């Protein structure tokens, strides 16, 4: 048992009248003790549920990310700053994920893309990015971290697989099932950056207060270049059945409150992309639909892929505006270049 951890647990778990928030250093210490298993299982479980009930502060989340950075390996800087698509680790259960197609489109255009995640995970236990890539013939679970770096450099795509590349964090996953609720770790992972250089983070969320938490946490950590997306099931996937609520934060002086925020309200109907979201019927059906998109066939998932791919091509500077980004994304799919990128990726990972 860790007496130090017990003191931090007592601080956040004492209730609304006598409880206190942790400072950044204390939160980093707590995270390190959980990652190293210096805290007992009883202490870790109590901390995670107490922290959820209290609600984490931005300073605490910044400290917990600091703690992760001391143990997690980082992909090394590339000549072109990458795009990180940060999505909930517990996957999708209602709507078809378009994130892998978005990543392939952006990578085909020459911009590196990094994703991260793990295996089926509580509490949603939805379909994960890991499973989708495996069914696409890209098994990231077999690669060492050094091999992921090589694949990223040669194909512009990389995936950090938690059990193999950050096992200390993966060891905390069972607590999610045991406490029956998403712990603050589930919010923290949406802001994690397993990359050592300058990058643009796209962070998905469901509830508006989470976006404010993103902005305040990044301010603590000096990050000024990120995109917040009120996406499908908390992912980075832009919806087509409602207005897209997006915050674009460009690099500037972090001391100036909200001076870097550009609020985008994108109406899919104004661009000809309004429609019902593609429902997630099964993994088999999803792969059939993805294959149709890669073959350039017209379908609802094709619309979703172009809508998302075009937006991120615009935000990564490949296209000067959204309209041209949409045209470029569609052409890359129709010409078979995205399918070629997938084949190149398959060969790189298998090799």
UniProtKB/TrEMBL annotation:
Keyword Transport recorded: no
Entries under InterPro entries matching the protein: Anthranilate_Pribosyl_Tfrase, Glycosyl_Trfase_fam3, Glycosyl_Trfase_fam3_N_dom, Glycosyl_Trfase_fam3_N_dom_sf, Nuc_phospho_transferase
SUPFAM superfamilies referenced in this protein's UniProt entry, alphabetically: Nucleoside phosphorylase/phosphoribosyltransferase catalytic domain, Nucleoside phosphorylase/phosphoribosyltransferase N-terminal domain
Single GO molecular function: anthranilate phosphoribosyltransferase activity
Gene3D superfamilies in the cross-refs: Nucleoside phosphorylase/phosphoribosyltransferase catalytic domain, Transferase, Pyrimidine Nucleoside Phosphorylase, Chain C
Domain Glycosyl transferase family 3 N-terminal positions: 6-66
Gene Ontology CC annotation, any one: cytosol
Pfam family membership, one: Glycos_transf_3
Keyword Transferase belongs to the record: yes
Keywords per UniProt: Amino-acid biosynthesis, Aromatic amino acid biosynthesis, Glycosyltransferase, Transferase
A Gene Ontology BP annotation from the UniProt entry: L-tryptophan biosynthetic process
Residues of the Glycosyl transferase family domain: 95-337
PANTHER family from the UniProt entry: ANTHRANILATE PHOSPHORIBOSYLTRANSFERASE (PTHR43285), SLL1634 PROTEIN (PTHR43285:SF3)
Protein name: Glycosyl transferase family, helical bundle domain protein
Classification lineage: Bacteria, Bacillati, Cyanobacteriota, Cyanophyceae, Oscillatoriophycideae
């Amino acid at each position: 048992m860790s007496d130090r951890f017990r003191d931090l647990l007592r601080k956040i778990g004492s209730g609304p009248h006598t409880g206190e928030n942790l400072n950044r250093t204390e939160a980093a210490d707590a995270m390190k003790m959980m990652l190293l298993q210096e805290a007992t299982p009883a202490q870790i479980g109590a901390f995670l549920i107490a922290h959820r009930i209290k609600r984490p502060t931005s300073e605490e989340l910044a400290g917990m990310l600091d703690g992760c950075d001391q143990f997690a390996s980082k992909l090394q800087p590339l000549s072109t700053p990458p795009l990180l698509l940060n999505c909930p680790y517990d996957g999708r259960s209602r709507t078809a994920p378009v994130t892998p197609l978005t990543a392939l489109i952006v990578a085909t255009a020459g911009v590196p893309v990094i994703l991260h995640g793990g295996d089926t995970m509580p509490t949603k236990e939805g379909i994960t990015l890991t499973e989708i890539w495996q069914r696409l013939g890209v098994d990231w679970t077999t690669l060492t971290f050094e091999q992921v770096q090589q694949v990223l450099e040669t194909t512009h795509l990389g995936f950090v697989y938690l059990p193999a590349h950050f096992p200390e964090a993966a060891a905390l996953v069972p607590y999610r099932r045991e406490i029956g609720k998403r712990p603050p770790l589930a919010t923290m992972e949406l802001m994690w950056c397993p990359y050592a250089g300058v990058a643009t983070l796209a962070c998905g969320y469901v509830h508006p207060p989470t976006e404010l938490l993103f902005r305040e946490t990044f301010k603590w950590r000096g990050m000024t270049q990120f995109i917040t997306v009120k996406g499908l099931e908390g992912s980075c996937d832009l919806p087509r059945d409602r207005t897209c609520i997006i915050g674009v934060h460009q690099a500037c002086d972090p001391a100036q409150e909200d001076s870097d925020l550009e609020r985008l309200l994108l109406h899919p109907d104004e661009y000809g992309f309004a429609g019902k979201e593609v429902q997630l019927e099964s993994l088999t059906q999803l792969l059939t639909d993805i294959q149709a998109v890669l073959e350039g066939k017209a379908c609802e998932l094709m619309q979703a892929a172009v809508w998302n791919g075009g937006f991120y091509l615009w935000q990564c500077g490949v296209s000067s505006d959204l309209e041209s980004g949409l045209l470029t994304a569609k052409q890359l799919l129709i010409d078979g270049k995205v399918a070629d990128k997938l084949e190149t990726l398959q060969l790189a990972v298998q090799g």
